Structures are given as C-alpha cells and as structure tokens.
C-alpha cells in the first residue's frame, strides 16, 4: 500500500484510514509507475514525466575525485560475482577444458572476496563442485542451471538487480564490466605475496574462459601472456592489473570518442586522476600527457582504495548486525538508497512532493501558532 502525507505524520505513528480529514491518505491509483506519477502530478499540480532525465540522473555521483564513492562498490562487487556465475551457467560455459579455471577462480574468491556472504556462498559451491568434478561425465550436466542454479553464490539477497557505484547514465553502459573490474582489483589487493602469481593466473584464465566479450577476452589474454617472470610480490600483481586496466582505458578513450559509445557522464580516463591521488603523480608532460607515476604511492593508494575503503560501509553493516542494535538503521539506509536508484523519476517526484507538502504543513502550523487568540468581545 502506498501512502501520501506530510513526513511528520508518518513519524508520529498511528494511522486510521477511516478517520475523517486524515492528513495521510492511501494512493488508490498507483498500480503502474505511469499512474502513480499521474496521481502525484494531480496532487501537486506538477508535470513530472518518467523520462525526465534530469531527475533520473540527478543522484548519479560523477565526481571522480570523491574517494568515498568506492564504498558503494561493495554492492556491485557482489552483483558482478552473481552475474558472472549466472552467465557461466546460463551460457553453459563449464566444459572439460574450462572447469579448472573456474575452480581456481572460486578458490580465490573463497579466501579473498571482500564480501563475507560471497565467500560463504562460494565455499558452498566449491564443496559440492569438487565432488561433481570427480566424475567427468557430470560436466555437461554441470552447465545446466538446474544443477548449480540452486546455489546462491552471494546469498539470498543477491542479485539486487541494480548497480550502485557502477551505475551508468545509460542502460547499456557500465554495470557488469565495471563491477567485474572492481572485483578483480579488490582481489588483487587482498592476496599475500606467496599467492600473487597463482592469483594472477586465476584471474587471467577466468577472464579468458568466461568473460563474454570476445574482444576483451583476447586483449586481456595478450596482456597476461606478456608476463614472462612469475610474480613474487602482491605489489607486482596489483600494479600489473592497474596498468592493464589503464591500457584498456587508453584504447577505449579513443574508441569511445570516435564512435560515441561511451557513457557521457563517465568518460574513460587514465586512472587514478590527479584529483583522486595527487601523490601518485610525479609529473605529467603537458604536451603528450605522459605521466611519470610514483608506483609506491599508486600501490599505497590502490591498497587503501580497494582494501579498507571499499568495505568501509559493509564493515559497519556487519559490525552493527553483530551488535544487534543498529542493524535496522543500516538496513534502512540500504533500502532508502535502493529506493533512490530504482524507480527513477517517480521516487524523486514522491520525495519532492512529500517535502513540499511537509513544508506547507509546517508553515501552516506556524501561522496558526503565531495568530493572537481571539478575544470574545471582538
Ligand atoms: C578484464 C576486462 C577487459 C576488458 N576489455 C575490454 C576491451 O578490450 N574492449 C572494450 O570495449 N571493453 C573492455 N572491457 C570493458 C571496459 O573496460 C569497461 O569495463 C566498460 O567500458 C565500462 O567502463 P566504466 O566507465 O564503467 O569503467 P571501468 O573501466 O569498468 O572501471 C570501473 C572503475 O574502476 C576504476 N578504475 C578505472 N581505471 C582503473 C585502473 N587502471 N586501476 C584501478 N581502477 C580503475 C574506476 O573507478 C572505474 O569507475 C573490459 C572489461 C574487463 C573486466
């Protein structure tokens, strides 16, 4: 049921639908987004439309120099993990020749995925997966969603069906591939020195076997193949992945500019931009834009950005849940963020409407209070 009224009335508690002159009313025609918006427009004398791009993208934070934005990406990392697995099953990509790559990547996720529920979900899959793999004849069956589709790789709340940090300003931009990059970077900063080469090959083989974009797969694999000496330090892997991503960015910067295929609100850049990490830049040539990176600083920055910062919101959530007190508050926060992301213009119109209505009610009450009491002889 959808209700309409001044915000203060919702806070104050009880609502009796039968009470006359009730300031909270139920919206009786909100079955579709269109009808709901019509209803709101009638109340407000406004003319919001579902295609109002201005409202749709108003909350998109395109401020690339705001490091705090990455905390929202932990949700995208979960979404990307689910989507990868879903594509693998849906496209029947588990074959005799690819199953080892999947196992290796799942092993990496079990230990180093930044989300606890994805680590748990992956572990559940791996336990049974190993048993099934023991019998080669089962591999064809494994590709069927019916067999592995019952597993929830990141728990029952995932997929949410939308992107947060990785949300593009157009439907066809960003999303999954952005979430996958963030997942890979977040894994790279979590592995120990001794695991770095194993993690590198797990990532390379996974992309080569399972990334649906053929061109991307090939390019990435070429970059992987150019590594001739095994990594001994996690730093080498972290910086290699960062550099590989920048090579892709550089290529796409030109491609997107000429074909107009990029997201206008999120143009590709050599990353991190100076605003995000000034200390990463030793110098930049003003003629050809060549950057002399301070690799120690870049490594420090990546570690912090994809390490601590990425999970800052998530950690709070876990902490509060464990404490059994503030869980609801944080859940509420997550829900209210969803509400902004999903129903586009309608939700914003509702928010505007309820604020306006609240302000009017408040003003009216002030007027009532400040009126002098009438004297009976007047
Ligand atoms: C492995 C892989 C290979 C790909 N290869 C191709 C390809 O060959 N051709 C193609 O058209 N598309 C390719 N894609 C998709 C493409 O790279 C983008 O993911 C897509 O265009 C969406 O871009 P985006 O603006 O969301 O930012 P993305 O490039 O997806 O980046 C996501 C986020 O990562 C951060 N970031 C950006 N650069 C770096 C960096 N160097 N190091 C660390 N973090 C960074 C930024 O915060 C950015 O918002 C590939 C994707 C992946 C995962």
How does this model look, in words?
Strands 1-2 form a two-stranded antiparallel ribbon. The chain has a two-stranded antiparallel ribbon with strand order 3-4. The two termini are 48 Å apart. The chain has helices at residues 7-11, 33-44, 53-56, 73-90, 99-112, 116-133, 139-142, 145-148, 176-188, 196-210, 214-225, 234-259, 295-309, 312-323, 327-341, 344-370, and strands spanning 3-4, 25-26, 281-284, 291-293. The protein folds into two domains: 3-59 and 333-366, no CATH class; 67-263 and 298-312, no CATH class. It contains 16 helices and four strands. The structure holds flavin-adenine dinucleotide (FAD). The chain crosses the membrane at residues 340-364. One of its GO terms (molecular function) is flavin-dependent sulfhydryl oxidase activity. This is Sulfhydryl oxidase.
Mind sketching the topology for me?
Blueprint: E1 3-4, H1 7-11, E2 25-26, H2 33-44, H3 53-56, H4 73-90, H5 99-112, H6 116-133, H7 139-142, H8 145-148, H9 176-188, H10 196-210, H11 214-225, H12 234-259, E3 281-284, E4 291-293, H13 295-309, H14 312-323, H15 327-341, H16 344-370
Antiparallel strand pairs: 1-2, 3-4
Helix pairs in contact: 2-16, 4-9, 5-6, 5-10, 9-12, 9-13, 10-11, 10-12, 12-13, 14-15
The protein binds flavin-adenine dinucleotide (FAD).
Protein traits:
378 residues, mainly alpha, two-stranded antiparallel sheet, two-stranded antiparallel ribbon, globular, binds flavin-adenine dinucleotide, ERV/ALR_sulphydryl_oxid_sf, protein disulfide isomerase activity, flavin-dependent sulfhydryl oxidase activity
């Amino acid at each position: 049921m959808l209700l309409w009224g001044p915000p203060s009335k919702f806070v104050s508690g009880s609502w009796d639908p039968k009470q006359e002159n009730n300031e909270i009313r139920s919206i009786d025609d909100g079955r579709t987004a269109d009808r709901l918006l019509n209803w709101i427009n009638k109340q407000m004398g406004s003319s919001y439309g579902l295609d109002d791009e201005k409202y749709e993208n108003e909350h998109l934070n395109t401020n690339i120099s705001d490091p705090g934005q990455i905390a929202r990406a932990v949700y995208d990392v979960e979404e990307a993990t689910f989507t990868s697995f879903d594509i693998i099953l849906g496209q029947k990509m588990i074959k005799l020749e690819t199953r080892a790559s999947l196992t290796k990547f799942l092993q990496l996720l079990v230990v180093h995925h930044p989300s606890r529920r994805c680590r748990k979900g992956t572990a559940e899959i791996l336990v049974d997966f190993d048993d099934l793999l023991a019998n080669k004849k089962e591999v064809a069956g494994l590709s069927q969603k019916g067999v592995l589709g019952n597993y929830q790789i990141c728990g029952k709340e995932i997929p949410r069906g939308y992107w947060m940090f990785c949300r593009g300003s157009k439907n066809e931009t960003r999303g999954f591939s952005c979430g996958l990059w963030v997942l890979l970077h977040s894994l790279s900063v979590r592995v120990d020195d001794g695991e770095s080469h194993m993690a590198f090959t797990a990532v390379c083989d996974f992309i080569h076997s399972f990334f649906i974009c053929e061109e991307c797969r090939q390019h990435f694999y070429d970059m992987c193949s150019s590594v001739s000496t095994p990594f001994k330090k996690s730093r080498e892997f972290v910086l290699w992945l960062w550099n590989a991503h920048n090579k892709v960015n550089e290529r796409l910067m030109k491609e997107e500019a000429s074909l107009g295929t990029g997201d206008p609100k999120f143009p590709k850049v050599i990353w991190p931009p100076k605003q995000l990490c000034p200390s990463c830049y030793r110098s930049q040539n003003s003629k050809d834009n060549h950057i002399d990176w301070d690799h120690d600083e870049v490594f420090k920055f990546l570690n912090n950005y994809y390490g601590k910062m990425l999970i800052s919101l998530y950690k709070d959530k876990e902490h509060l849940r464990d404490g059994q007190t503030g869980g609801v508050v944080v859940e509420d926060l997550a829900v209210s963020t969803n509400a902004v992301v999903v129903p586009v213009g309608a939700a914003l119109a509702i928010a505007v409407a309820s604020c306006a209505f609240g302000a009017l009610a408040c003003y009216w009450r002030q007027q009532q209070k400040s009126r002098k009491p009438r004297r009976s002889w007047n």
